[in-house]
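Section 3.1: Structural characterization of target chains.
Under the original work plan, the team committed to producing a structural model for every single-chain target entering the pipeline before any wet-lab resources were allocated. The record below documents one such target. The sequence was received from the expression subgroup and is listed exactly as submitted; it comprises 188 residues.
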Amino acid sequence: MKGVVLITGVSAAGKSTVAQALAERLPRSAHVRGDTFRRMVVNGRADMTPDSAGSAEAADESVRQLHLRYRIAATAADMYFDAGFTPIVQDVIIGPDLERFTRLVHSRPLHVVVLVPDPAAVELRERARAKTGYGNGWTIAQLDAVLRKETPRIGLWLDISRQSVEETVAEILSRTEEARIPPDPRLT
């Protein structure tokens, strides 16, 4: 698998684990963790919430910071790609932002893998891990609805509810072409 790989899905879908395992299978790879860029903001961070604190100003700032995080991740991916690595970007990029992110990455080929475990599997994973992905008012059902109803059906969508990490990585590697996103004609 050469090119840039984006692994996305809801919180606790298995993105970090799958991205790391995939990166470990490739000869020259980098794991770009999008949430790292969010955590770099020390003061003034505005996280996304379902209602963004009920004000348009808070919502605007949350979206602005989210899109900043995506631009930084896309730039990091392009830089790793230019240096001869296969960057694996991993983040929650759902809804219309998924298609927007594919235009931010200039390197090609670009592969998009959307992890879509059922909500019960997500709940089990969320309870089993040390960190929490469902703060700020988000519920598993809310994010799952955005994923399934508002996210464009691009790339490779995998229901990994009953798969091991190794099985998921093997499936991604065997279905690489299905994950490939056509070049953006505006970039050529």
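The radius of gyration is 16 Å.
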